[in-house]
From TrEMBL:
The lineage of its organism: Bacteria, Bacillati, Bacillota, Erysipelotrichia, Erysipelotrichales. ATP binds at P32, N33, G34, C35, G36, K37, S38, N39. HAMAP family: Smc_prok. Residues 419-538 form the SMC hinge domain. It comes from the Bacteria. It is found in: Cytoplasm. Belongs to the SMC family. One of its GO terms (cellular component) is cytoplasm. It comes from Longibaculum muris. GO terms for molecular function: ATP binding; ATP hydrolysis activity; DNA binding. This is Chromosome partition protein Smc. CDD domains: ABC_SMC_barmotin. Homodimer. GO terms for biological process: chromosome condensation; chromosome segregation; DNA replication; sister chromatid cohesion.
Length: 980
């Protein structure tokens, strides 16, 4: 087997697709530093599965993709294919050629692997080359770095090479897999054992429960076979007995219906009879009533007859007919007079009564009018009284100046003894009512200032106050006071201002002589309508003037505001005005009262008159009442006398005609006839009733007997029905039990179960079996199934456990076997290499000795490899102390020793001999030649000695900057190229 060619495209500096052909033997690759030689060995390493980015001299896998140069764009994918010749089937793959490809895309870092252009996994590639000696730790690719680090590396790090040479790598891999498998098996075993242990705990109690359940089922089965038979038998017996009962009930019912019919009929007859008797009784009663009336009638008529006879005799003896007629006529005249008189008196009586009522109404009206008038006068008097009081107060205020201070009052009192006192300012001013509030506000305290003619007068007055200790006062001497006014420009402003009414002094009337005082006090006070305007106007005139409103609010000089209400301080002006008004009111009220009093007087006179008339009327009314009563009784007497006379006259004419007598006799005869008829009828009906009574007695007897019989039948039926209900309940209980307990129908049970049983014994057996079942206590029927399930599961798991234990054993055995193979192969190979190492060493160093040793001879499987070397003429020394060239030689010795023992099909050596001297390069080259029959060498070199041994030479260049190009060269060109 050998590497036939490498195809690179986009891998590192191989931007363009490059194909490098190889042959068996030695191929040399030469070229200046940095032209991409080592990239070739990187490419081979990469395709063979290298995953370490560091080994590929990058920091990212995508670093292997050509990443552009000065005039080339980067590639997006790197692809390298190795083509091996496999005619000798060295590789375990049945093709003459094996192509292994690896691709990497920059965009998503996605890798692709192919064998003979078929996609595959990385693992497939690793498996394919596993036994060929091209593996990771093999000697197939050795770089400059590998060589120099060989001597310095740790013993353990060197071991890999030897393992690869001994061919134990695959055992190691398999052992690892086995150990993992062993761990998994162990885990499974632990898990299965846990479950088994748990199941073992459940099994014993479940078994006990299961056995109990089985006993229970057995007993239950026995019970069922007996009890079902018993039930069937019971049901059968009950059904028969019920049939009998039903039959007997049916016949009883028929009998009962017949008797009931009979009774009903007899009762109806009885009813009819009773009705007849009742009707008869009613009739007899009626007839007896009629009889009684008839008898009374007879008696009465007989008495009447006697009376009439007696009366007739008396009347005929005592009455004179003509005299009677004369008395009747006389009496009629008297009666007529009495009627007339009575009617006349009654009319008068009514009239008087009406007049009396009119007078009473008039009296009432007069009384209420007087009362209202008195009330009215009283109210007026009260108002008048109040007004007079108020007048006193006002007089006090206005005329006695009581509202003024003590000082002012003192001066005004002594006014006449002082000179030049004109008056109090407030009293001297007058204004229309609507301005009084504003004026009072404008004046404020000045209301009480006293106006004098001169200041001399004022001083004297003050002196007077002091002398007499009579308080204080302020004086305004006319002579001295200077008029004040608004500045012209301010006046202009005011006149154009909304709400401006004028200067306060324009709204007052006063005596001419005090003008200077008035203008001094009011000439510069402005009057406006509202406080809002007052504020605005004050601002417009720079708050130089006092501004007052109609409601008495003030914006003072300087801008402060005063307002609100002042309840007691009514101004002097108002008081004066009120005093005048109240005086007028008092006069008009006094007039009104007088007027009303006169009216009251009139009414009083009228009242007296009405009372007088009324008294007279009442007296005549009382008299008339008596008269009417007398007249009424006179009338009645006359009337009854007249009636008795007319009555006697009628009687007399009847007696004379004899009509009365005949009629009475006829009536009497008729009455007697009726009485006899009634007596007969009553007798007949009594007899009929007697016969009904007899009939009724017979019927009652029959009814009593029928009813007694009916009661007997009913009680027998009740008894039977109770029995029937009892048996039916029992029957349904038995059927229910069959259904509930044994889930069978009666028909089914009857078919399936024998009825050849002794009931007594069977019932006893049932009792015994039930007792046994009860004494079992709680039974878990599920236990049978559960036990089955758990024990089956346990068995399955137990056999799994045994399988796992077996598996574990066999894995352990396999591992042991592998260990043995590895130990023996490793040891064998190690010994061989050791021997060859000494030989190659001596050869390369021209003498001395070298030996490989286990760093841990007791643990061949893991031991590291130590190297003891002694070049000729030198003592054995620590390997790290050797020169670079010596170290390279030692490493190369080892490499060749391994190649001798275990040849590899292909080996790439990247400047491994760089540090050797010319003589050693030659020896190195000779060794290559020696091995080249069995190993294909691809050698990156700068050394002429090596180049000379090469069968084929490639020169690597970078004609285009950053892009490697390989061309076949002759030795001479190669030497030039290496030197360049
Ligand atoms: P030496 O003789 O010094 O060992 P060499 O010929 O072995 O030199 P390599 O190490 O193979 O040189 O190549 C190094 C060159 O490859 C560098 O110039 C580097 O810029 C270039 N190279 C490495 N990776 C990339 C990449 N991904 N894209 C482009 N160029 C790359
Ligand atoms: Mg290099």
């Amino acid at each position: 087997m050998y590497l036939k060619k490498i195809e690179l495209h986009g891998f590192k500096s191989f931007a363009d697709k490059s194909v490098i052909e190889f042959q068996p033997g030695i191929t040399g690759i030469v070229g200046p530093n940095g032209c991409g030689k080592s990239n070739i060995s990187d490419a081979v390493r990469w395709v063979l599965g290298e995953q370490s980015v560091k080994s590929l001299r990058g920091s990212n896998m995508s670093d292997v993709i050509f990443n552009g140069s000065e005039d080339r764009k980067a590639q997006s994918v790197a692809e390298v294919t190795l083509v091996f010749d496999n005619e000798d089937r060295f590789m375990n793959f049945d093709y003459n050629e094996v192509e292994i490809t690896r691709r990497l895309y920059r965009q998503n870092n996605e890798a692709e692997y192919l064998i003979n252009r078929e996609p595959c996994r990385l693992k497939d590639i690793i498996d394919l080359i596993m036994d060929t000696g091209l593996g990771r730790d093999s000697l197939s690719i050795i770089s400059q770095g590998n060589i120099s680090s060989f001597a310095d590396s740790k013993p353990e790090e060197r071991r890999g090479m030897f393992e690869e040479a001994a061919g134990v790598a695959k055992y190691k891999k398999r052992k690892l897999e086995s150990i993992r498998k062993l761990e998994r098996t162990k885990d499974n075993l632990d898990r299965v054992e846990d479950i088994c242990l748990e199941l073992e705990k459940q099994i014993a109690p479940l078994r006990r429960q299961k056995e109990k359940a089985e006993v229970y089922l057995e007993l239950k089965d026995q019970l069922q076979s007996i009890e079902v038979s018993v039930l069937v038998k019971e049901i059968e017996n009950l059904s028969a007995s019920l049939k009998e009962l039903n039959d007997s009930l049916d016949s009883l019912d028929k009998e009962k219906v017949t008797i009931e019919g009979q009774i009903l009929l007899n009762e109806q007859q009885n009813e009819t009879l009773k009705k007849k008797m009742y009707d008869l009784d009613q009739e007899v009663n009626g007839l007896q009533g009629q009889l009684l009336t008839a008898m009374n009638n007879v008696n009465e008529l007989e008495t009447q007859k006697v009376e009439i006879d007696t009366n007739r005799k008396h009347i005929l003896e005592n009455t004179d007919k003509e005299d009677l007629q004369a008395r009747i006529a006389q009496m009629r005249a008297i009666l007529q007079d009495a009627v007339n008189e009575y009617n006349d008196r009654v009319n008068r009586y009514k009239e008087t009564k009406e007049e009396k009522l009119d007078l009473e109404a008039a009296q009432e009206k007069n009384r209420s009018e007087m009362m209202a008038l008195r009330q009215n006068i009283e109210n007026l008097n009260l108002q008048l009284h109040n007004n007079r009081n108020r007048r006193e107060q006002l007089v006090d205020i206005v005329e006695n100046k009581s509202g003024y201070s003590y000082g002012v009052r003192s001066i005004m009192k002594a006014k006449d003894s002082l000179s030049g006192i004109i008056g109090v300012l407030g009293d001297l001013l007058e204004s229309d009512a609507q301005y009084e509030t504003a004026l009072t506000t404008a004046l404020a305290g000045a209301v009480q200032f006293i106006v004098t003619k001169t200041d001399q007068d004022a001083r004297e007055a003050i002196h007077f106050l002091k002398e007499n200790k009579s308080g204080r006062a302020t004086f305004l001497p006319v002579e001295v006071m200077k008029p004040r006014s608004l500045r012209d420009d301010h006046l202009m402003v005011c006149q154009n201002f909304d709400g401006y009414l004028g200067v306060m002094s324009d709204f007052v009337r006063y005596p001419q002589e005090i003008e200077s005082v008035v203008l001094n006090q009011l000439g510069n006070i402005i009057l406006v309508d509202t406080l809002k305007h007052a504020s605005a106007l004050s601002r417009a005139t720079f708050a130089r003037y006092k501004v007052v409103t109609m409601d008495g609010e003030v914006v003072n000089i300087g801008g402060s505001l005063t307002g609100g209400t002042n309840k007691s301080q009514s101004s002097n002006f108002a008081s004066k005005r009120e005093l005048e008004m109240i005086k007028e009111t008092i006069v008009s009220q006094e007039k009104e009262i007088n007027h009303k009093k006169a009216k009251l007087n009139e009414l009083d006179n009228l009242a007296r008159e009405i009372s007088h008339h009324l008294l007279q009327k009442q007296m005549s009314f009382a008299k008339l009442e008596v008269v009417v009563t007398n007249k009424k009784s006179e009338l009645q007497v006359a009337k009854s006398e007249y009636e008795s006379l007319t009555h006697r006259s009628v009687e007399l004419s009847e007696i004379e005609s004899g009509a009365q007598d005949n009629q009475l006799i006829n009536e009497l005869n008729e009455a007697k006839k009726l009485r006899d008829r009634l007596t007969e009828s009553i007798q007949a009906k009594r007899e009929l009733r007697m016969s009904f009574v007899n009939e009724n007695d017979k019927l009652e007897e029959t009814l009593r007997a029928s009813r007694a019989h009916l009661r007997e039948i009913q009680s027998e039926m009740t008894q039977k029905q109770v029995n029937k209900a009892k048996q039916e309940t029992e029957l349904s209980n038995y059927l229910l039990r069959l259904n509930d307990e044994y889930k069978m129908t009666y028909e089914f049970a009857k078919e399936e179960y024998t009825q050849e049983i002794n009931m007594g014994e069977a019932k006893e057996n049932v009792r015994l079996l039930r007792h046994k079942i009860d004494s079992l206590g709680n039974v878990n029927l599920q236990a049978i199934e559960d036990y089955q399930e758990v024990s089956t599961r346990y068995e399955t798991l137990n056999s799994q456990r045994l399988d796992l234990i077996n598996a574990q054993d066999s894995i352990l055995k396999a591992i042991d076997e592998m260990d043995e193979i590895m130990i023996s192969r490793f040891g064998e190979t190690f010994e061989k290499i050791n021997k060859e190492f000494n030989i190659v060493f001596r050869n390369l160093f021209g003498g001395g000795k070298a030996e490989l040793r286990y760093s841990d001879p007791d643990n061949i499987l893991e031991t590291g490899i130590d190297i003891d070397v002694q070049p000729p003429g030198k003592a054995v020394q620590n390997i790290t102390l050797f020169s670079g060239g010596e170290k390279a030689l030692i490493a190369i010795s080892c490499l060749f020793a391994i190649l001798r023992v275990r040849p590899v099909p292909m080996c790439i050596l990247d400047e491994v001999e760089a540090a050797l001297d010319v003589a050693n390069v030659e020896r190195f080259a000779k060794y290559l030649r020696e091995f080249s029959t069995q190993t294909q060498f691809i050698v990156v070199t700068h050394r002429e000695g090596t180049m000379e041994e090469c069968d084929l030479l490639y020169g690597a260049t970078m004609q285009q900057k950053g892009v490697t190009k390989l061309v076949s060269v002759k030795l001479k060109d190669a030497i030039d190229l290496a030197g360049a």
